[in-house]
Amino acid sequence: MRETELLQMALGLLPPWIVAGSEFSIAAKRLDIHLDFPKGSRFSCPDCGAADCPAYDTEMMTWRHLNFFQHEAYLHARVPRVSCSACGIKRVTVPWARDGSGFSLLFETLAMMMMSSMPVAAVARLLEEHDTKLWRVLHHYVEEARARADHSSVTRVAFDETAARRGHDYVSLFVDLDGPKVLLVADGKDAATVEKFSADLAEHGGLAENVTDVCIDMSPAFIKGTAAHLPNANITFDKFHAVKIVNEAVDLVRRAEQKDRPKLKKTRYIWLKNQANLSGAQLGALSGLTGLNLKTARAYQIRLTFQDFYAQPSQEAAEAFLKKWYFWATHSRLEPMIEAAKTIKRHWDGILRWFDSNIANGILEGINSLVQAAKAKARGYRSTRNLKAIVYLIAGKLDFRLPA
Ligand SMILES: [Zn+2]
Questions:
Q1: Distance from the alpha carbon of residue 124 to the mean position of ligand 1, in angstroms
Q2: Measured in angstroms, how far is the CA atom of residue 88 from the centroid of ligand 1?
Q3: Pairing between strand 213-216 and 156-163?
Q4: For the chain, which has fewer Cβ within 10 Å, the N-terminal or C-terminal residue?
Q5: 202 neighbors 149 (Cβ within 8 angstroms)
Q6: What is the pLDDT of residues 316-366, one digit of tens each?
Q7: Could you report the per-residue pLDDT of 202-258, keeping only the tens digit for each?
Q8: How far is the centre of ligand 1, averaged over its atoms, from the C-alpha of 40 (Å)?
Q9: b/e per residue, 50-69, with b = 16+ CB within 10 A?
Q10: What are the two backbone dihedrals, phi and then psi, of residue 42, each rounded to the nearest 5 degrees?
Q11: In angstroms, what is the span from residue 322 Cα to ligand 1's centroid?
Q12: How many Å lie between the centroid of ligand 1 and the Cα of residue 53?
C-alpha cells in the first residue's frame, strides 16, 4: 500500500477528496498531509445543499490534526467556493473540520476530552497550542450544544450561588434534580437571577409553570425570586443549610463562653462534627467537656436533637418533633440558639416540605466542589465566561455531537 492510500484510509476521506501527497520532517517533528480534489469535481452548496455545484475558486487552508505518533500533523487543502445558482458564491464545508476552525474535528474531540478532565492551561501545554485557541473551541461547542439543549421535562430544580472569581463576583448554578445536570449558570445571586433562569427555561422548551419543586437555602432573594418567577414551585429548604444554621448557633455560644472557660478554646470542630467523624482524642475531649455543665454542651445537645428531626418517620411526626424542639431551643436562654430557632420557625413549611419532596442540594454541593476544584487547579479563570463554559462541560451533560 502506498502512503497516500494509507493516509487516505486513515483519514476516512470520501470522494472527491484525496490525499495528494505528504511530507514528513524528522527535524521539524511534523507530518504535513496535502489533500486535494480532481479537476472538474463537483461539490454541494453549504447553504441549500444543492449537489453538483462547480468550483468557482479556491483558498489554501491548514488544520492541525491528531498527532502522528509524537509528531504534530497538519492537513492542507485548497478549499473551493462553489457557484450555486440559488445562493451565489459560497465556501464548501470540508468533512474533516468545521467552518472557521484551524483544527480538524478529531483534534477538537481530543481537546474537548482532555479539557473535561484537566485544566485548559495544562491541555494547552500538552498539545503545544495557545490556550486562547482551546478556549475558543470549548466555547464554540458549549454554546452550540446548549442552544440545542431540551429542558422541556424540567420540574424539580435546585439552585445555589457560588463564588465566580476572586473577589465579589457570584454566579448561581441551576440544576435539574432529575438529570442531574446543570441547566444554567447565571450571573448574580438575587431575585433577578431566578428570572434569568425562567427565561432560559422557556428558550429551551421548558415552562416556568411546570416547575413544581425547588430546593434552595434560606436566601431571601431566592425565596422572592421563586415566588415571582416560578409560580407553581414549592420550596424545600436544603437540610444541610438548616443544620448549618443550628451549628453556627452552637459555635456562637462556644465563642462567647470561652472567655470564661478557656478549656473551650480550639474545640470548635469537636462541637461541629458528628460524633462518628471524631477521632479517639476528640471524643475523649468531648466527653470531658460535656461533664462541665457548659452552655456550649447544652447548645450541642439542642443541635444533635435538631438532626434527629430529619430521621422522623413522617411529616406529621416531624412537625410534632419540630414544635417540641422549638420550645426547648427558645427556652434555652442561649441567645444565638433562640435566634436560630426563630429562623427555623420562619422557614417552617419549607423545612417540613423535605418529608414530601425528599430533595436536597447534595448534587449541587457535589457539582460545586468539582467547580471549585477546577477553579483551584486553573488558578482562577480569566473570565466568568470561561468558568461557565467549564461548568457546562463537566456538569451540563451536553451533547457536543463530536465524532467518536
Ligand atoms: Zn445553494
A1: 38
A2: 7
A3: parallel
A4: C
A5: no
A6: 999 999 999 999 999 999 999 999 999 999 999 999 999 999 998 888 888
A7: 999 999 999 999 999 999 999 999 999 999 999 999 999 999 999 999 999 999 999
A8: 18
A9: eeebebeeeeeeebbbebbe
A10: -110, 150
A11: 70
A12: 9
